[in-house]
Amino acid sequence: MITTGGSEALLFTLMTLCDPGDQVIIPEPFYTNVSSFAHSAMVELVPVTSRLEDAFALPPMKDLEKLINPKTKAILLCSPNNPTGHVYSKEDLERTLQLCKKHDIFLVVDEVYREFCYDGERFTSILTFEEYADRVVCVDSFSKRYSMCGARVGMLVSRNKQFLTDTLKLSQARLCPPDIEQVAAAAALTTDPSYLVEVKKEYESRRNFLVEALEKVEGVKTTKPKGAFYIIAELPVEDAEDFATFLLRDFDLNGETVMLAPAEDFYATKGIGRRQVRIAYVLNKEDLGKAVACLAAGLKAYAERGA
Amino acid sequence: MITTGGSEALLFTLMTLCDPGDQVIIPEPFYTNVSSFAHSAMVELVPVTSRLEDAFALPPMKDLEKLINPKTKAILLCSPNNPTGHVYSKEDLERTLQLCKKHDIFLVVDEVYREFCYDGERFTSILTFEEYADRVVCVDSFSKRYSMCGARVGMLVSRNKQFLTDTLKLSQARLCPPDIEQVAAAAALTTDPSYLVEVKKEYESRRNFLVEALEKVEGVKTTKPKGAFYIIAELPVEDAEDFATFLLRDFDLNGETVMLAPAEDFYATKGIGRRQVRIAYVLNKEDLGKAVACLAAGLKAYAERGA
């Protein structure tokens, strides 16, 4: 079913699977706006922490299982992940599906970055697990695939007929997703696949460039994620938000600075991720290089600011 | 604030002004999808009945006031009205605002049909009442004005800063209304005003044609509404839904039939409006004429079907 962006697909999914007060388990850090959709649907997100030290791998099943209770209606994953770039393996997904089946809950996977997998990593869609098809919901969107952000065309894919019947009611209430942009999206589908091969190659090379550059900056810890176009980096600062504010207000390198996304708000657990930031590598390498140089100089100036 | 159609503007308004279980008073019959938005926001719509015999005028203030209680957060009007075509007068709005002020609640007016007022009727926007500006929310949209249905660009207009701050949070969660269609909407605003003068003239003439044609059909009661492009007609049948089904399944006139919108679902009060249908006069006169002929023949066949 076509939705007004992946955003509406997530909102409709939460509204359909949950009553107010129900719970959905989600690995943190996660895309912050899911919190807002959960608030709108009066659903409680229950975080399970994935860690930079583990390259943000899916936490052990026993950690997820501990969180399941009668109010739990689904586990929500994003793969390739925003904000960590982690790509969940076929085995990860299979194990999670087994857990979902055991407790009779849904597995929702946001796959909007599915084309962007690097190092030969093969993406496994949740839709390929025939055996579990009735408890699977896939969220997708055109905006990342064809750089159509702003055009609000997403979709919900499920083989669960009741789920589709229920979400259809929410769809009918708001009449339709944007018409003109649906036509544009249909046209985008005729794009030659070589386009995505090129785009993927370019992102992979930007990722390599960015990770190498960040690794040279003293005190910065990061991972080399296999998908999407984000990196979580841990900085040698106590409070990344304060540092980000410093960069914007009190610092420049040749009249330029960088704006960082502090990662703390990607975590639902209080106090985690305060030293982390999310960096998107959507710029070209020249700009990425300047940004990392600026970040390095900013870190130095920030450390010396009280001296 | 720009929204994804008038639909989202209505949903955001209900979510912002109300907590779950709160109430909003609305004259019935009303646009059915408001029910769906209210369900989504877990808001209870409390209907006050307007009647065909009164040309669907706003019910007396004392009827509205009786329904106000501590859970009431707003009165919601649509003017010109979908589905009745009624246009609320300046005095109606002023009286309603006084009532809202007395009970410290909001007045929300859906004005998406504001250009379509006939017989020289002057449209009064709720935004013209300066004195009450802090309790007023106006819902608007491009789709009717420029025949852009499908392009999802609407808006919320209010001078209440807290309301705008709160709805902005809902807006930010879903990122943006459709981008390409916002550009189209901005371009539509440069349309020469003579376009709307012509469109209005055409609709007025279609309304006159339709009302005259309907009045000639035996047993049909209707009004001559002063706005929008809808008419509620009462038919000489017990159950308009059953009749509409009959027209689609078991009837044709020269291979054609008409599809009617039974009005019962525009009422929240059970059992009202069963004999009524909503007719939109968006077709050209030739087609409208054929449709009314078909309706008249259908009524005759329906009455004789058991004989």
Q: Can you summarize this structure?
A:
Two copies of one chain form a homodimer. With 307 residues, chain A is α/β, with parallel strands linked by helices.
Please give a structural write-up.
Two copies of one chain form a homodimer. By secondary structure, the first copy, chain A, is of the alpha/beta class. Chain A folds into two domains: 2-188, Aspartate Aminotransferase, domain 2 (3-Layer(aba) Sandwich), CATH 3.40.640.10; 193-304, Aspartate Aminotransferase, domain 1. Chain A is 39% helix and 17% strand. Chain A contains nine helices and eleven strands. In chain A, the strands form two sheets. A seven-stranded mixed beta sheet of chain A has the order 1-7-6-5-4-2-3, with helices on both faces. In chain A, helix 1 (5-17) crosses helix 2 (33-40), helix 1 (5-17) packs across helix 5 and helix 7 runs parallel beside helix 9.
Question: What secondary-structure arrangement, pairings included, does this model have?
Answer:
The structure is a homodimer of 307-residue chains.
Chain A: E1 2-3, H1 5-17, E2 23-28, H2 33-40, E3 44-49, H3 61-67, E4 72-78, H4 90-103, E5 106-110, E6 136-141, E7 154-158, H5 161-173, H6 179-188, H7 193-215, E8 221-222, E9 230-234, H8 240-250, E10 261-262, E11 276-280, H9 285-304
Parallel strand pairs in A: 2-3, 2-4, 4-5, 5-6
Antiparallel strand pairs in A: 1-7, 6-7, 8-9, 9-11, 10-11
Helix pairs in contact in A: 1-2, 1-5, 7-9
